[in-house]
Amino acid sequence: MLAARVRGGWVGAGPFSELSGAGDGVDVVHPQKRFYAGGANSVRGFAQSGLGPRVLTVEVAQVLDQGVCAAAQVMDLTCAAAGLDDGRFLPRPTGSTRVFEANLEVRFRLASRLQGVAFVDAGQLWSATSSVDLGDIEVSPGTGVRFLSPIGPVRVDLGYRFRGGESLSVVTSQLRSFASDEDDPDLRIVVDGARIPFVKSDELAVLGPMALFEESSSLSWRRFQLHVSIGQAF
User: What are phi and psi of 34, to 5 degrees?
Assistant: First the structure.
């Protein structure tokens, strides 16, 4: 059996963009209203919401404790956090305003209650400030099995992505100097087991150089993505 799906969308602030003072071409759409892609029901070579614009978040204490940067470099946004291992970053999707996805799936019987699947997914997200380029579309082939249970198909899919590393912005907490008359001494940042005279502020710091995330060879196992869920993909 052959199954297919196409999804596309565009969202914008419309006349409300003038209220924000941001002007044309700036994303003023609420994060909950933006589009996200990647996951068990999307482009399966990527983790949930792993396709499209993302940033890397990291605890500022880890940046300092690993000796990658000094506190002053974090404060003036010149810290090069690319020296950190990938495992210390937490990627977070930021969403986008335009989306295109296409899925093609061949489903075939393996046993009375077991179904096999071969699929090809494709898709991409674009922001309001970027032009839609079909050359940016990511293609993800894969295979999977479904156990036809009484509560619906129990699905296991394994997708593959061709894309290697991606340069992403690094975001952490901004620092400020410790003020003994205002701050609790226990809030000071711990570096190498000792507290330094800086505390985290309520602001975010977008560090200067981007970091290359998920760089791997073309045959690396890190390009495979496993999904386990209930129900058909679409």
Answer: -80, 170
